[in-house]
Amino acid sequence: MLAGLELPCELVCLGDRELLAARAAQLGLPVELIPYRPRATPRQHRRGTLSIAHVPLAAPSMPGRLDVRNAPYVLRLLDLAVDGALTSEFAALVTAPVQKSVINEAGIAFSGHTEYLATRTGGLPVMLLASDTLRVALATTHLPLAKVSGALSIEGLVRTVTTLDGALKRWWGLPAPRIAVCGLNPHAGESGHLGDEEIRIIAPALEELRAHGIDAVGPMPADTVFVPGILAGFDVVLAMYHDQGLPVAKHAGFERTVNVTLGLPILRTSPDHGTALDIAGTGRADAASLRAAVQLAARLAEQRG
Q1: N or C, fewer C-beta in 10 Å, the chain?
Q2: Element (H, E) at 129
């Protein structure tokens, strides 16, 4: 899987060395686990190896079985990775999927990596799913649908689109990104007959953005913006909520899509899928999205310099 990648950097895995060795043996994966040691000049990643920053499990782990005793351990790994990224020990952070439910069942409020990283770093995150053929960003992330309207504001949308515009210029080299902004309601509100968030919030935000030279178009009906002929005229689509945009992005390239968190003081990517507990430990999981997340993190970190 990851050990077979060719990368222009050192790939460091934070986790339990014995657990990883046992899983590799169980799946017949030939990999040499090398103890990670911070160094002035990082070790170049070599095929068939993986640097391990060993952090012992809190409780034994069985494939596909959740254990609340390990919930604080998961967040400890995340904290260590964030601390390393904030101090530039790590150039980028790639997070593997986590089971949010078991962390919450352990009594720890956790709605997702994006929100947790924002709290830890003080950033104002924007979630972007990117593949070779499509980019979709979100105005809100892990919220119940009933709370989406109340979470939208002119100020918030201006900040989100400004962050998105800057990232596309910096990381993807687009000199003048074209940004399609979805409405919240069916038919983008139908001139107020199906909701007025487009009139009260989205349209005024876009007017302000355009006054600052950002090419943001909308509010556009979400059921037509993803039509290929329309989509071809834009570099990214901003959806108002999670399930307005992400199903389309994942359908377009599930195994190639990467979740990139913009607006943080650290660089973070992740796969676009969940934990797949039903096939854990079987060797049937597709690691393509995780590989893509690692490769994109390495490319963006190298570009940042």
Answers
A1: C
A2: strand 126-130
